[in-house]
Amino acid sequence: MSYASQLVMTLPEVVLSIGALVLMMVAAWGGQRSSRGVSWAAVAVLVGAGISLIGPASSGGEAFYGLYRADAFAAFAKLLIYIAAGVSIIIAPRFFGATSGDDLKPEYPVLILLSAVGMGIMVSAADLLTLYVGLELQSLAAYVLASFMRRDTRSAEAGLKYFVLGALASGILLYGISLVYGFSGTTLFDDIAARYAAGTSTGLLFGLVFVFAGLAFKISAVPFHMWTPDVYEGAPTPVTAFFASAPKVAAIGLALRVAVEAMGPAAAEWRQIVIFAALASIVLGAVAAIGQSNIKRLLAYSSINNIGFALIGLAAGTQAGVSSVLIYMTIYIAMTLGSFLIVLQMRDEAGRPVEDIAALSGMSQTRPALAAALAMFMFSLAGIPPLFGFYAKFVVFSAAVQAGLFPLAVIGIAASVIGAYYYLRIVKTMYFDEAAPAFPKTGSVVEGGLIALSAAFISPLGYLLIPALGAWAATAARALF
């Protein structure tokens, strides 16, 4: 295969890389006044990267001697990543303009693009070294984004915590990679799978444990979740929306590829780790959220809770299980971005962000449309029918039952009832408590349109997409087997 053909297979990353470098130069020469132009240009670059998925980038197979894989699975995950990244860029200018006293800095969309390059490499990795390079590129951009508001103490603290704990997780992952390489003699996923199929030695088993521990940090699964509430609360809200969506898809996609392609023959060993992480994440995410008074911290625990449900699909280890995880993450992206879009509307008369859940009191009277949208997102996150979030949980539980993990599905369903409590508490606050001061209307047509689009997607109208979404997810899952 020619070098040009291999570059065509990596076209989405090429487009994003060139776009990020060009926009970085524009930002350097244009300064602060170029911020909005760079932001919209970055969205255009993401659209171009999405279009470039058509063709060899989604069906080309292996490139660069097996280091990179362009298949339907990677294309599915990348499209979700680009959508979440684009929304995170679009919602940023108004937030930073009102919060930090000046317009958005042009470095923000460039960092998002560079992070998207890393995430694309993560979901296309077919080698442990490619995996690590992609993961670190995504992480380095994320550390800067978390502390983007340098004058804000909480943002600086969030960036520092994320960096320190992220470095620890990277060390754990790298140690696991070194063990797997040391006992298998290769870093290619296919060759590692052959070595696991030949027999799991103690060294390979320890390598598996450390690799999954490192990946658990990236998806903020228990017991490696400790950074999530503090970082989500301290980071600027558009950055938090980004962290809760795109990197989650990339990390879950990477975990799926590693579990199925590299360590598929050792499914009995890693399934125990995944089941523990799934149940612990569901229970802790539900229980810890009950006492939260900050809406961003509550959504952080909601994120941990939802990752637990996604891991149930991974625990199945089947094609149906992988397909169910992809469907779950698609619906999860819409619910999460919609929730954070409403958090962006929470401001006092002076334009300062308000994050107390108590400020939502009586919002059904002061901002009825906004309250209705948030109620829909909360009910959907809780998995209450007929909203689309119910179908997301249904498919992962169904995959677990088909794989013979009936007790896991039963425990997961029972634990989901606990999580419903704090979602319903939000709805109760909006509809039954005495009205608090109304949030002033922002007048942002773009944000209002995105909220309406997200609400429509997770409404019963979303069930009309099941045939297309199910077929696409099944095709993507088939690429791993």
TrEMBL record:
EC number: 7.1.1.-
InterPro entries for the chain: NADH-Q_OxRdtase_suN/2, ND/Mrp_TM
Reaction it catalyzes: a quinone + NADH + 5 H(+)(in) = a quinol + NAD(+) + 4 H(+)(out)
Domain of life of the organism encoding this protein: Bacteria
Keyword Metal-binding: no
UniProt main location, coarse: membrane
Stated name of the protein: NADH-quinone oxidoreductase subunit N
Annotated Gene Ontology cellular component terms: endomembrane system; plasma membrane
Stated family: Belongs to the complex I subunit 2 family.
GO molecular function, a single term: NADH dehydrogenase (quinone) (non-electrogenic) activity
Domain NADH:quinone oxidoreductase/Mrp antiporter transmembrane: 125-419
Stored PANTHER family: NADH DEHYDROGENASE
Subcellular localization, as worded in the UniProt entry: Cell membrane; Endomembrane system; Membrane
Membrane-crossing residue ranges in chain numbering: 6-30, 37-55, 75-96, 108-125, 162-184, 204-227, 239-260, 272-291, 298-319, 325-344, 369-392, 404-424, 445-466
Enzyme class: translocase
Annotated membrane topology: Multi-pass membrane protein
Swiss-Prot/TrEMBL keywords: Cell membrane, Membrane, NAD, Oxidoreductase, Quinone, Translocase, Transmembrane, Transmembrane helix, Transport, Ubiquinone
Gene Ontology process terms (BP): ATP synthesis coupled electron transport
Subunit structure: NDH-1 is composed of 14 different subunits. Subunits NuoA, H, J, K, L, M, N constitute the membrane sector of the complex.
Physiological role: NDH-1 shuttles electrons from NADH, via FMN and iron-sulfur (Fe-S) centers, to quinones in the respiratory chain. The immediate electron acceptor for the enzyme in this species is believed to be ubiquinone. Couples the redox reaction to proton translocation (for every two electrons transferred, four hydrogen ions are translocated across the cytoplasmic membrane), and thus conserves the redox energy in a proton gradient.
